[in-house]
Design brief:
By secondary structure, the protein is α+β, with helices and mostly antiparallel strands. The protein is built from 21 helices and 27 strands. The radius of gyration is 29 Å and the shape is globular.
């Protein structure tokens, strides 16, 4: 394995560590000779021996053949050949990433502070970590970062509108213009002179690096993106995938050797947790930084489970072996219910407290020992204390499962980060701690989903059902504790509850949280007290409240916002900004009575934005609508606005796939010709225009969601804020 080390004197060292990966085969006697014959034909040294290993949940060990491959580069080709040639043989440990296996075996992780003994030729004789991935006070090596982006307003250069290459490093900016030869040569000079550890790019995977590489190949010029001269640049094609009910698109990958390439536009972890959070995830999951930046968080939690299995000597199956147990239709209805939601009481309320269970689902898995091998175990089926509420499952009371063993340190570390955040006085330190705890939060969030994921290595639907059954029971227990203390519940959704009690202060809610914790055994805390909070009805059916749409003003002045335009990625920036100003106006009120007095000022804000639209001042950036394609562009049957914009891009030769994000402007929503209704942003020129009425409707909807519970109707909102009307907004009567 090639290992890159940053020494304490600043040298970047390319070292080699001899590494022998292993896999395991369980073959019937009739296939042993066939396997042996294939192994003898291998082009590298192979070692074999008979050993016994346990499968997850097995009471007796399984006799297996251990195969050691003394050339890691040959490991994957050899195991794939064995799998194709021996379909009746069971394989274990064959498809775990070799860098991850190296980290597991050496007890190392990315960016670890370590001590290594090297020969003069750079061969590692020994290497050991000087810190633990569970440390919270670690410091990072002094990595140098070079940023690459385009000097262009286009939201996606793949759709058109590419500009000149901008290079930033330590406050210095270089705009690389001129012909292609000049650009490549100047970029090479900067890469050699600065020798960055990280290339941080915008659209680097999908646009920048592929085009720079194509330019260099065409001109037959070297390109010093890699620090390692012995390796080529890693490439992976773009693809679409289905996750949590949505089609998502992945832009592929361009990975480097000897330095790291991170693409801000192709990394969920970077977008959600920042660089500190991405590094935190890589450290605890033992997934290399470039891969962690481009994969799903589920890959990280899977890697942690795989490490636990390796550490415990368990066999990791090549294919998931555990089928779902048979259920009747009635049993399915009983067990597969998901989390519990109490519909909110629509409207605005004042002096409300919110209580949240801390990482509820992962905490349930740890507290109640829920894991694929512990659910419906043979040893505890008669124990009443092991029964899962409401459904017929039970969990083991005698041995801790693999999933709880994996999650317990994560929960503990996140709790320590939150305590450190509360005590932090420096904003910079607090930001880093917040990014790290958020990174752990995402790992914990997906740990529940992977319990029931069909392709999860250690997934099982019965374990998934047990978690939701416990969560429903715990939410009901919390509700009953609160109601015994004369609190009224306004809303509850899975792990969060909103209560109201006249005269209750922070100390009262803290005592309530303590009582619920003692009753349930799970930690619950006060998220905050609201001066006021509004739960909103459905726009389709006003009698039906929406569980995940609300706005609240905490007693410390911050706002909590969920589900409305300001939080939606597909809302135009102009609409978001208008809604944000209305919210700032409402936040000046501390009571419901004061909130109603803010209505005239809020209407004046809406009036100003409507006038801004009608006067034609709105810019492309303010009007752009961002949508993700839910299927392949050719599969659309109706002329939706997204489909029309996608067809325009396809006609201009832009490749699109399901999950891709497109950007467009509504030009004439009611035009008879579909192509006149919208224009893709990347194809706009100086003659573009926008549909005032369409954007006006979006603006009014965003305002109405906030003001309707205060008595403002759609008709009165339209009339009182109409730029053509001479009526004074302050004279509006609200019921």
């Amino acid at each position: 394995m090639v290992v890159w080390l940053l020494s304490e004197d600043g040298r970047r060292i390319r070292a080699i560590d001899p590494f022998v990966p292993t896999c395991y085969l369980a073959a019937p006697p009739s296939f042993r000779e066939q396997v042996s014959r294939l192994l003898r034909r291998a082009s590298c040294r192979i070692g074999t021996r008979e050993v016994e290993r346990y499968e997850l949940g097995a009471l007796r060990p399984t006799p297996v053949l251990e195969v050691s491959v003394h050339a890691p580069a040959q490991f994957s080709p050899l195991t794939q050949q064995l799998i194709r040639s021996c379909p009746d043989v069971q394989f274990f440990h064959v498809d775990v990433s070799l860098p991850q296996r190296y980290f597991y075996d050496r007890q190392l992780f990315p960016l670890v502070h370590c001590e290594a003994n090297l020969t003069a030729e750079g061969r590692i004789q020994s290497i050991q970590a000087l810190e633990s991935p569970w440390d919270t006070d670690y410091s990072l090596p002094p990595l140098t970062i070079m940023e690459l982006s385009l000097d262009s307003p286009s939201p996606n250069p793949n759709h058109g509108g590419g500009g000149s290459l901008m290079v930033r490093m330590e406050g210095d900016e270089h705009l690389l213009e001129g012909d292609d030869t000049d650009v490549i040569q100047r970029l090479n000079q900067l890469l050699v002179r600065e020798d960055p550890d990280i290339l941080l790019t915008d659209c680097g995977d999908s646009y920048l690096l592929p085009r720079l590489m194509a330019m260099a190949d065409r001109l037959r010029l070297p390109l010093a993106l890699n620090r390692d001269p012995h390796r080529s640049i890693g490439a992976r094609k773009p693809h679409s995938y289905f996750s949590y009910g949505r089609i998502l698109s992945h832009a592929g990958a361009r990975t480097l050797s000897g330095r790291l390439h991170l693409d801000r536009h192709n990394s969920f972890a970077l977008a959600e947790t920042g660089l500190a959070g991405l590094i935190e995830q890589a450290r605890v999951t033992k997934v290399d930084l470039q891969h962690m930046a481009r994969t799903t968080t589920g890959t990280g939690i899977t890697s942690m489970q795989l490490e636990t299995a390796c550490r415990d000597g368990l066999l990791i199956p090549y294919r998931k072996q555990e089928p779902e147990a048979f259920k009747s239709a009635l049993e399915l209805l009983q067990t597969d219910q998901g989390g519990l939601v109490f519909a909110p009481i629509a409207g605005y309320h004042e002096q409300v407290g919110e209580l949240d269970f801390s990482s509820m689902y992962p905490s349930i898995m740890v507290h109640f020992n829920i894991s694929p091998e512990t659910v419906n175990c043979r040893c505890c089926r008669e124990e009443l204390a092991a029964r899962v509420p409401e459904i017929g499952h039970h969990t083991c009371r005698h041995r801790q499962g693999l999933v709880p063993r994996t999650l317990a340190p994560l929960l503990d570390k996140r709790a320590r980060y939150k305590r450190l955040m509360a005590a932090a006085t420096q904003p910079t330190a607090r930001t880093v701690l917040d990014q790290r705890q958020t990174a752990l939060k995402w790992l914990l969030v997906v740990s529940f989903g992977y319990l029931g994921y069909k392709n999860a290595r250690f997934g099982r639907i019965e374990a998934h059902e047990a978690v939701t059954a416990y969560s429903r029971d715990l939410l009901l227990q919390a509700k009953e504790v609160a109601e015994r203390q004369c609190y009224r519940m306004l809303h509850a959704i899975v792990d969060s509850l909103w209560f109201i009690k006249p005269g209750a202060v922070r100390a009262d809610y803290d005592r309530l949280a303590q009582a619920i914790t003692e009753q349930t055994g799970l930690s619950i805390s006060v998220e905050g007290l609201y001066r006021w909070i509004g739960f909103f009805p459905s726009r389709v059916n006003p009698l039906m409240p929406v569980p995940n749409q609300f706005v609240g003003l905490f007693d410390h002045g911050a706002m909590k916002i969920r589900g409305i335009e300001i939080r939606r990625s597909d809302a135009p920036f102009l609409v978001k900004r208008a809604q944000a100003e209305v919210l700032r106006c409402l936040s000046e009120a501390g009571t419901l009575a004061e909130l109603r007095k803010q209505i005239p000022q809020a209407l004046e804000i809406v009036h100003t934005y409507r006038r801004y639209l009608q006067d034609g001042h709105a810019t492309i950036e303010e009007l752009t609508i961002t949508k993700s394609l839910s299927k392949e562009p050719q599969a659309y049957r109706h002329q939706t606005l997204s489909m029309i914009a996608a067809q325009e891009l396809l006609a201009r030769g832009v490749p699109l796939q399901a999950g891709d994000t497109i950007h467009y402007i509504i030009t004439d929503a009611d035009a008879a010709c579909p192509s006149d209704r919208v224009r893709a942003v990347a194809g706009l020129d100086g003659t573009w225009s926008y549909d005032v009425s369409a954007y006006d409707n979006l603006l009014l909807k965003a305002a109405l969601v906030l003001l309707k519970p205060l008595g403002v109707t759609a008709t009165s909102l339209n009339e009182s804020t109409d730029p053509a009307s001479h009526a004074a907004p302050g004279l509006l009567e609200c019921n």
